[in-house]
Each structure stands twice: as structure tokens, then as C-alpha cells.
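Cross-posting from the chemistry board since nobody answered there.

I work mostly on the small-molecule side, so proteins are not my area. We synthesized magnesium ion and want a rough idea of how it might sit in this target. Sequence and SMILES are below. Is it possible to get a predicted 3D structure of the two together?
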Amino acid sequence: MRVGLDFDNTLAEYDHLFANLAVETGLFAKSPGGKRDVRDQLRLRPNGEYLWRRLQAMAYGPCLDEAQLFAGAAEFLTACRDAKIEVVIVSHKTRFPACKEFKTDMRQAALDWMKRRDFFIVDGFALKSENIHFADSRSEKVQMISELKCNFFVDDLEEVFIEPGFPVSTGKVLFAPDQTRSSLPVKHCRHWKEIADVIIGQPAYA
Ligand SMILES: [Mg+2]
């Protein structure tokens, strides 16, 4: 049994980080809310797209460590470890940000984030470091998911599941905490506890 997971906004939660960055960078006196609110408000400004890209480059690079592991994800990963379910991570993440002002290697930042949260130690989540994959595009990501023959894939973006080439044999699990419903044939989960029920099929939580 092999389970594939997306990284950004599936394992790593950015709402707090973007809310803090919005204020720390002086863009807002008070944060307009989470990641989406910050983006939407910034895009209303004349140079909004640039400001948003700049903020993203900071969040996914030098400030990544402030991102949090989603509630319930640690219990899910521990349950997979105990049940000998192999976990692979497939992330659409370019090495360097689109905003050239920042030179942080975003893939290395993600690996460091995982390392600091005990992803790779036996007493932690015991993932194999070779099970972390980065793709340059969404189509490359879907090709990797297909080659890895994942029984399930968990992602926060519906677009991944409708990308041509997404394997029919892989169970689609949409993790969208703020979405009321999905029109796609996916299992829509709003909390990692639900994901555990779907994938592990037994209560992973006491
Ligand atoms: Mg994502």
C-alpha cells in the first residue's frame, strides 16, 4: 500500500504565515485574514500580482519554517508508519521562486522543514528521503504519481485530479478544509482525521 501526498497547503499550512508576513512586510496594518484573503486583497492593488509573488517567494523560501503541519497530519503519518503504509510526497515546486529577488532553494527549504519535524527519523514519521519528489509542472507531477502507482493521492487542488494522465487506479482524496463541496468524483475531506478514515480505514485517532 502506497499513499501519495501533496506538500504545500496539504501537509504545510500557510494561513498563519501569510497573515504574519502581510503585516511584517508593512503591506497591511492588520492582516486581512489567511492566505487567500491576503492574495485577494493584494491583487486589488495596481502592482498586486508582483507583491503577491514577492510574498510567496518569502513564504515558500526563507520563511517556510514558520509554516505549520496541518492539524491531524502528524497522527496520520504516525498511523501510516505503524501500519507499514508507504508514504511518498509529490510536490509541484520549482527550485527557485518566480520572483528573482529571492534566491532561496525552495525544494531544499521544504526538505529542511520536513527534517525539522522528524519526517525522516525512525522514531518520527520514518519516511524515506528518496520518497520525496519535486516536479516542475503539474503534468510532470501527475506523471510521477502515475509511475509511483499510488493507491491514493491527497491534494488540496482539484486541478491535479483532472489533469490529463492522472491514473485511474489511484484514489482521489481532496483535502479542502474551507470548501463546502466538490463537483468532482473525489473523496472530499475537510480534516486529516477524515483522510485517515478513508485511507487507513480504521480510526487512527483515539
Ligand atoms: Mg498543494
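Reply from a structural biologist on the board:
Welcome over. Reading the output above for you: The chain has a mean pLDDT of 94. The chain has eight helices and eight strands. Happy to explain the C-alpha cell format if needed.
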